[in-house]
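Final paragraph of the annual report: two paired records, presented back to back.
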Amino acid sequence: MKFTAEQIVESVILVYGSRPALEQIRRYGVERGKITRYNAEGNPEEANYERRFVRGENLEKDKIRLDQKLPTMEYSLIYDDGKLWGIINGAAFTPRQDATADFLSQHHHSIDLLLRYKECGAKITLVGKEQQKGLDLYVLDLTDKENRRTRYYISARSLRVLWLEYEEGPPGGIAVKYTRKFLDYRIVQQTLVPYRVVLTVDGRQSQETQVLTITYGVKFSDSIFKNPEA
């Protein structure tokens, strides 16, 4: 039996918790964990993080605050109203281009985008069904309103997103291939969450995120998303 792209994605949404549950339970949340980044020599740098968010009507309307604690410094990245800035020692700053690109690509190429494809006005296309490493997979392309494309590899058995791929690069330059793998899935407040995410860049492991705790339904003041200099 052949399924359409929409039938597959709607089934994926049910597996992750159903649209009403995802909208209500995941409207507010706090996630804490560790980020390990690997430099060009492959040496790791660890940071503790806390991510607080408010879900908007689409990805552009989301509010996110990512606090990171490295051995040498602490800083926050804040996304609100489609804009990104940083705070360090209570003062606003413009994040480095690579930090901005990392943050935004994680937001724009995500499981969340697939689960909210309708709200975000994205188009989904079924590329086909294939087998890799003994796994039967549905391969789906999603193109958002800004024409960014993400390819999702979904287990035909469990309907979980196992990994996604996308390419980014300067206009006219060489595109870099990113792969984000989702591992260690757990149930959190009736919704499905990967607790380990591994990012590879052109086949080299670049970053690993390990979730320690997630709590949904935690409300916090809107002031944490405000620019102190606005």
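The closing record of the year follows.
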Amino acid sequence: MSRTGSNTVLLTGAAGSIGTVLAHELPAYGHRLRLLDSKPIDADDTVLADLTNDAGSAALDAAMDGLESVVHLAAIPTEAPFADILRVNIDGTYRVFDAARRAGVRRIVYASSNHAVGFTPRAPMVGVDVPPRPDTYYGLSKVFGEALGRLYADRYGLEVACLRIGSFAERPTSHRHLSTWLSHGDAVRLLHAGLSTPDLTYAVVYGISANTRAWWDLAPGHRLGYHPVDDAETYAAQIVAEHGQPDLGARTEAFLGGEYTDQRYDTPR
């Protein structure tokens, strides 16, 4: 089914770092937005709801009425105790997908993460077809979301795009960011592609800018209609001057997940 970008889109997690940028910039691409978060938002079409409880689920059902598309960003955006990840990132994501199914929503664009494959060894042009190797409970929750999207695409016919977002920031600030950076502008272009690409069934793509030192294959994103324009290499000389050269023998340099693979993220015994 073709998308023109003219339908109203429910944006969950609209008060978060990515959501705030999208809420401001996506309307320029022709998308009307309904903004949902557990925090109040100063905008015209908003829904105040906590997706982890029954009252929030009822508000979510009402918010989805008559919509065709959902962008699901709402989540704990970093590592946290498993009970919290389970409640917010896993059960909350299930509630969004199932509410979309019940409401007849046609498309979900899901904010996954590179940490779904964080324990994959670094290599040139890693594809989206590598096995899941989450580096944290957070990464595990993103593996769940991708698998849930696959189930709902196959069983219920939802159109699902899973975006393995890299390092979202206004500008890169570390050696790792030279490979993993996703600029604000490219994030908007990525989400627009997920919402507007025609004939989507199910797709997983990496969400990074057009970085010269990229580890991840952007070809699946190109097929989705995502064509990033920013490159972290613009900042490379400044980053090297500030931080020196990285220790290539460090564990955090060996895997795609970077610092999330460090032993300080181990669960205490």
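The longest helix spans residues 82-103. This concludes the annual technical report; the extension proposal builds directly on these records.
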